## 1
Amino acid sequence: MINDAHHENYVSICNVSFQRGDRTIFSDLNLQIPTGKISAIMGPSGTGKTTLLRLIGGQLKPEQGSIVVKSQEINKLSREELLKARREMGLMFQSNALFTGLNVFENVAFPLRVHTSFTEQMIADIVSMKLEAVGLRGAIDLMPNELSGGMSRRVALARATVLDPKLMMYDEPFTGQDPISLGILLKLIKELNTNLQMTTIIVSHDVAEVMQIADYVFIVGNGKVLGQGTPAEMAVSEQADVKQFIKGLPDGPVPFQYPAPDYIDELIEGKN
Amino acid sequence: MNKRTVEVMVGLFVLLAFILLLFLALRVSGFTDNSFKNGYTVSAEFDNVGALNEGALVSIAGVKIGEIDSIVLDPTTYRADVVMQIYSKKTLLPIDSSASIYTQGILGAQYIGLTSGFAETNLQNKGEIRTTHSALILENLIGQFLFKMKK
Amino acid sequence: MITRLQQLGQSTIRVITSLGSAAITLFVVCFRKPQNIGSAFRALVAQLFSVGVLSLPIILVSGLFIGMVVGLQGHHTLVKFGATSALGSLVALSVVRELGPVVTGLLFAGRACSALTAEIGLMKATEQLSSMEMMGVDPLGRVIAPRFWAGVISMPLLAIIFDAVAIFGGYLVSVKLLGVDSGSFWSNMQSSVVFSDDVLNGIYKSIVFGIVATWIAVYQGNACIPTAEGIGRATTRTVVYSSLAILGLDFILTAMMMGGW
């Protein structure tokens, strides 16, 4: 099993520490993303979930530790090797990040033009195919500012998957979507993962949606992994921080009150 | 705005700049006058060049035919050796021509005015004009005037 | 007291850090080979349009008015000395040596450079630069470099156009409006303007201004805080810094040129 041609874990994050300025985002983080499955990384806001995706993608380098993607240490690659490695990764940004100067066709075709030397005809065929898969083949000539929020998100999805990457990362894909778009996104993410045999990482804090499609869940907070398991296991976990997050309890390990002096004392002093 | 239109407009922009550059070169700065390949040099020695500058004009009958190339002190004769660049080889100067230093207007820049002589042979390249009249120095004039007045 | 010193030290370190970062950006933009020559050229043409061609209206109008004002003011003073024949030289020399490169530079900084910073800053804030990087495209090469070269190329072209239009404006006011003799206007101009010393030096100045202003614009956009407020502040900084840099460099360059290099 360990010397399998298919590694059991597509992404291996070992003892990673990362700081931004004087804030420690991760300290000694350990995370294994299983191959071929949909893994969700959840946690309170500001715990550095997006930073984690950037570390996996090689945009940021950790201070300590190693990040292994498909048996390559991402943080040690040269520019050319990183370029090749990124060909196999797709990242869908929270803000869609469609190129405002290009229309839908050109946006989706962009990675093809960069990484391949396909003919115009081949590019057109692949782009149509991907847009058909997300249901937007009719919008092929529109500009990004003419698209609705949900449509932009689907175009971003088409663009991120156009090279049939083996690792697909979604940064907060469900934020601010109406129920219909949500349903479409869930369906697309699940189908892509199965049909293209990808490894999927979803970073989100939409517990209900994520639990529907994830095979494995990680809860990250305070720079470490607080809890991990299948959705079923997480739903009944008695661990305090996991329970607070999953059930959405207002108070718990993440406190309700912002640190402040004692209220009764303040009231008494005020009276004097 | 499709790609073709954009490319055309950028091309026009660059073209416009080059045309106007030519305008600046030819109409604004009189660039064409200064092609030294078709000219030749003559020199002349003056007792006093006054405020004559390098690049000042050289003219005959008021027409600009060249400019001052250099003004150097001759270390043996202590006179100013002025080299003039005549623009065109077609401008022929007889060897007995004379050179004088004049002032444009009353307080203007100084220039060299040549007067043509009557000889049959002409000055060649690096030839020398023998007859020269130096610049009128205002202080000397005033001094002479006062001297005359005293008499 | 100590905290003040600490703050001063920190600010100094910050300034030096950003200066170093800006220098590295410039170096990379100038010397990294483009990933694809064809698309790099097409991007350059597109940027020449947005940076150069779209600045033409303001340059043309300003050039015309400045030339007309110089003609008017010059005539007002020269007429007292009976020296209106020198008006042609006055207009041409002031425009070609100073007003052309400097005013074009300032207008360029205000219109084109602020637009560049805003555009790049917006791309940074909407994560377009990040996603480009994730797709294996170098944003410095694909987005920043064409804009930088477009600015460097456009500035001298715009300065030449400004010069010509301003001289024309001066001609309109002097000859057509104030009755100066056309022949002496142009001939005096031609005898006092030297192409290599006056016109060319002005163009060299505009090239330097173009490099510095565009560099500042492009760096500020790339290094801004990726929020709406951050973009706004970066844009303001671009206009202020490049305007000051142009004026300061103008003095230095003029001193160098007058002193005979």
## 2
Amino acid sequence: MSEEIVIPPEKVDALYETLKRWAESTGYNLNPDEEFTRGLVEGLLINRQRYGYQSCPCRLASGDKRKDKDIICPCDYRDADLADWGACYCALYVSDEVLRGEREIQSIPERRPPEGRCSWDQSAQREQHN
Amino acid sequence: MPEARGSIPGTRSEHHTVFYGLSTCMWCKRTRQFLESQGVKFDLVYVDLLRGQEREEAVEQVRCWNSAISFPTVVMDDSRCVVGYKPEKLKEALGL
């Protein structure tokens, strides 16, 4: 069953502007790809409505704030990912290098520790392309 | 708001392809758009839009391929998967 959450564009605009100002005043950069970034901001607002907190739009939240506190934006992994990859996991934030056009962003590996392991023992035989 | 599950039509149907994503994730959106632009026929699952048992089952399916349970995860022929927005790896895996 799907839920129907519709975020008005003006709410996306308002949070986008707030995050941009906050980022610039604290030495961070929002991703300059506005369409991409506004999509993430909309995702944050959807998650706020769903769960009551702005969890990372590119991670599956549990709905339990205590379990998800590490992935509430800005997540605990942002700085390490910015240093290693030039962007945080969802790419809401990018490094100065990326902002200057000296580095391209990409979809990066998940740094958050896994919850558990597959109970289906065949997984070791399978092929994964990360 | 997208549907939680869907079957996306396409002319490239050589592989049974399942896309697991989050409706709020822009890398998932790009991956879906890439598969659609290449004419790949695939099943789509937005795990964040599922509830209860259905969601738990989808998470378990993703975990079997990708212990980080990260998105997007694209599974092909129940034998290989590509994690993240990786057009070149998808092309290689799908023979595009």
## 3
Amino acid sequence: MDKETQISALVSRTTREMLERRVRASGVKKGHLVEQALQHYLLALEELPADVIVRPKLVVTRASGAAILAKTRTARPTRALRRLMRDAD
Amino acid sequence: MQIRALGAADDRSRFRSGDPDLDRFLQKFAAQNQFRHYVGVTYVAVDEQSVLGFATVAPGHVEIERLPVADRNKLPRYPLPVLRLARLAVDRSVQGQGLGTRLLRFVLQLAERMADEYGCSGVVVDAKPGAAEFYARYGFTPVEAVLGISEARPRPKPMFLAMRAIKAASKRP
């Protein structure tokens, strides 16, 4: 096994909570889980160019965030969307 | 013609959409993404053995950049689950015949099932510059992202469509 070394990184609160939930659920050490996740991700990047990877997290500006939240509460379908979804039958 | 998940044996070598990046993705990386790394699923429209179109999706979430203390109570701190439509393309031989809209409908129906089964607030599409108008017709609106934008070139524009609108559109009058 390689000699261990320490890294330091700032992550979002959401990521930290997800990490801690997973650690509690699986019983593995946090460092082990972080290393496994990084290795999977970095190996995938070696095989897949960055432009073909779909990023799971999209962080938007406050203005766009507020607009998205408003849409989740009040959005109405356009005529084209109604036609598209009703043509399904 | 049917729309279904890409199979390992599907012949993708003859697919030509006119966009070399999209063709390269389908031919070289869609299967790796799906079968080896499990980071996305490509749905293909197939006729006999030919792939006529495809749409690649992956689950994701939207977060809002750090808020000032005064605004924190107004907006949720949790991320919004979404279905991300990363790529959609149609073979030149059938362009202009409505296959793109059929693939889009398939993806929106997939998002509805996701919403019913484990939560989905909407669909985010990474729209190439020439496709933004197509998506806008269906109610997708552009969003300004600070992180997580696709690295494809030309740089796509993220656009959002709320599940509320999709569900309302699916309801019988």
## 4
Amino acid sequence: MAKVKAFTMPKWGIEMAEGTVAEWSVAENEPFARGAVLALIETDKITNEIEAEADGRLVRILAQAGEIYPVGALLAVLADGEASAAEIDAVIAGFKQADTSFGDEAPTVAAAPAPAPARTAIPADANISPAARDKAEAAGLGIGDLSGSGRAGRITAQDVDQALRPVPDAGLVGPLPATPASTAFASPLAKRLGHVHGVDLATLTGSGPKGRIGKADVLAAIDAARPVPAPAPKAETRAAAAPAAPAADHVEIRPMSSMRRTIARRLTESKQTIPHFYLRRRVRADRLIRFRAAAEGTRPTLNDYLVKACALALIEVPAVNIQVHGTDIHRFGQANIAVAVATERGLMTPVVTGADRRSVGEISAIVAELAQRAKSGRLTAEEIGGGSFSLSNLGSFGIEQFDAIINPPQGAILAVGMARPEPIDDDGAIRIVPVMHLSLSCDHRAIDGADGARFLQALAALIEAPQLLD
Amino acid sequence: MAVMNIREAINQTLAEEMARDSSIIVLGEDVVGGAGTAGGQEAIGGIWGTTGGLFAKFGPERVIDTPISESAIIGAAAGAALAGLRPVAELMFADFIGVSLDQLWNQMAKFRYMFGGKTKCPAVVRLIYGAGMNSAAQHSQSVYALLTAMPGLKVVLPATPADAKGLLTEALRGDDPVMFFEHKALYGQKGEVPDGEYRQRFGEARMVREGGDVTIVTCGRMVSFSEKAADKLAADGIGIDLIDLRTTSPLDEEAILDSVEQTGRLVIVDESPPRCSIAADIAAIVADKAFTSLKAPPKMVTGPHSPIPFARELERAWLPSPQKIEDAVRQVLAFR
Amino acid sequence: MQLSREALLGAYRRMATIRQFEERLHEEIKTGEIAGFTHLYCGQEAAAVGVCDHLSSEDMIVSTHRGHGHCIAKGCDVRGMMKEIYGRAGGLCRGRGGSMHIADLSVGMLGANGIVGAGAPQAVGAAIAAKLKGKGNVAIAFSGDGACNQGTTFEAMNLAVVVKVPAIFVFENNHYSEHTGVSYAVGTDRDIASRAEAFGMKAWRADGCDFFDTYESMRELLDYVRAGHGPAAIELDTERFYGHFEGDPQRYRGPGELDRIRAERDALKIFRARVGEAKLLDLAELDAIDAEVAQLIDEATRDARAAAPPDPATVAEDVYVDY
């Protein structure tokens, strides 16, 4: 019988209220010795390592890297040897979050779940059918904004049902992209969902008649792929009351997800602590566009070429291919380019490692994969970390030029706008060609103007001579 | 991938399958043509051109011209299937189920069930149907609703050459009686057809396009009419989920219900009079199973409750059209 | 020609089985325990056995609503048949077909059929299959003097001639199509066999109450058909002792008719007389057979009455091979 117990968020210093598990340093069930680093915890003030007090293993890891947890929250289950699922579950079930709040303030850790919505009483003279009234009251639906589809505007059960229906997946209303033909035995909607969410239907077993894959199967697969939430109360519940019903002037209050809170925190920190400066230049894109058009097979995107160009330019100007850690500058031998991907939940920056060594075609495939996984929430920690430079391209949204915020601990980030026809000096003649505006944001603590300029020069030369890219 | 029309797809599939399986025989009126005449054999290869060349390849024992005796043709197909062959009988016009209905309805459809599940009747009956070629009331009907209503039969309506090949192959490989409907005005329809062996499951509808605003459910020739309507509607930013049923029995309910849950608006296009039609059947299924998703009543676009007229203007007025389909879509969108 | 002892005993056994099976049903139906319509074959035993005793299990027959005799003659399991008629789960068709739809393809019985005349085209189809297989098998459609007026019968006969297949049309003329006499219903003043001849096939005529006459004519016919000459027909003159269906008051019978045909046209009595006369068999052996058959029918009936009914939950099964 192993000794199985809870592993919780430590309290370092009187003021610490919460911490972020920056990363786990051991894998689930991996045995460690006393003194081994188990995890890296970030607080407002410091990032610190938690060391093992004794030999053992984390038989179940519950906290996710990158998420914030209050002091005392259950992060993992610790045992001195192997433990059965039953023992582990017992610890989890029996765990009580300690009250680590500061007496006079409102508790920042809500141990209780959000209060159940009260049954909204509907006035007796409302023009609503009895069945609809029952449904609405039970669901706590305010009928003030409902228009009834029944006789003389009466609200019907159908109206209530439709009002309670969740907003359909943004990927599934309005004009839809043509789904690539799939040979999986699946309903058309399942194929569509699979395509939008990047689920490979070949990996699913269908629960429909004759084993057909249906919407439910794909949605279950999407849910299963989402990170498992920790049982401890999460940041969301600490927010003010559950989303209020739309007020009279329809203001909807949405608490930030933990991901958004992290983004908020990091970018605020970046802007506040890093002395940004910006270098801007234009670059002619016509040769690149033509070069791309001549590519055979599945054509890489323009951005894929830019990733390669940045990678090669970073190798040429290694002063920009860095991470800044306190007073240390880490210079990288290869170019690990973080590519910005917009997802429903926020901006993510998965990294293409060693982009200088890869062909544009390879980069294209990798970026596509990472983007899909980013959108379906399946990126791993390794895929997000370790970047030495970032590339952000808003050209497809019609942005002509912009300045991006550096992603610490990187030293720089390139912002690219759309290629639009502009006049250039082409060997003495004025010609109108597609031109992109580049903006390089640099951390002046580690990168000087000349370094940044030389990088842009190298980059422009590559973009304007694209045959060098592949 | 080869490009061919529906006629060619059917002809090729028959030839390939007959070469592969010696128990497949073809019988019908003038499937070869010329028997007992001075002009000689293979005078026509089927009046729709779908059985041409089979006689030369497979001979009189497997490609059989029959007298005009629909009951005997279909009955013989039923008996041959019980006796271990895989007959493909042709009803030159689907309307002729009238003179052969017992063998379809009381015999072929019911053998397996009546005999306790101990027999199978793997017969394929090819029925040529549809209006639009001025063939008048007795040679233009879509009788698939009647046959869909009969438990024991499978009812199949390809709208593309690929589906003609895929569904016919599936019919010939399966062990149930299949009513294979060929629209007389679709034979020339061209499309890509996969090479080699290609089967299309029954009960799996084809999403022709996805647009998310209104669901159109249809089959056969009405698919291409609906596509034209959808193109016009797309120009106005109205997106159509267009479902080609492929088979009315078994029916892909899931595809229909999934789409209606998203769009809430349903238009069913059926080349038939409205009473007891496939359109009415699907409207009932959707009203039963997706009622709370509907934002408007289901709309049926069908012919009127009348036989099919002869004169061009009248036949045109009888048939559903892309314009009528478009109007129906706008109507369900405008519903409150 | 001389039939072996086994053949003769076998023929009698089969005829006796049919007779006793049907007679027993006649009694049991009165109790109300058997649902639906039943059409008894008593009186026509020589026709079924005289035809089917020539056949192997690879030869096929299609029968009519009056099919118990053909089923038994072709080799269907008597107990399974009884259970089917009683609508039990263990019946030959799992209780789904009943009296009019008994089938057993493993012995070449392609089904009794509730639609008059439906079997003829199916037999032509089966004959097409037989011809293609090339093993010399035949397919037989049993019809009555009623079915011989159905369009399907005419179409089938013509088609059989046109495609020249080994289809055999056996017309059991028991003089009544339901409640109407053959002299009215069949328009020609000649017999039914001549219709088949008019369609272009050879036709025989025989006494359907005399096993030997039927058997001999069928031997010639089958030699002809198996030799590949195309289809053939035979009209068997016979009688049915009971009504069209059980419950039929038989008001169409003449005075003393039923007694007369029981006395003069009883196939079992005629068989006994013929074998006794020619000293082919000892009548005591036939009595012994009667006793054995009686026991078989007893057991079959008892088993059927005690057998389990089908499970209602299975009502929609077996519609398709592949759902």
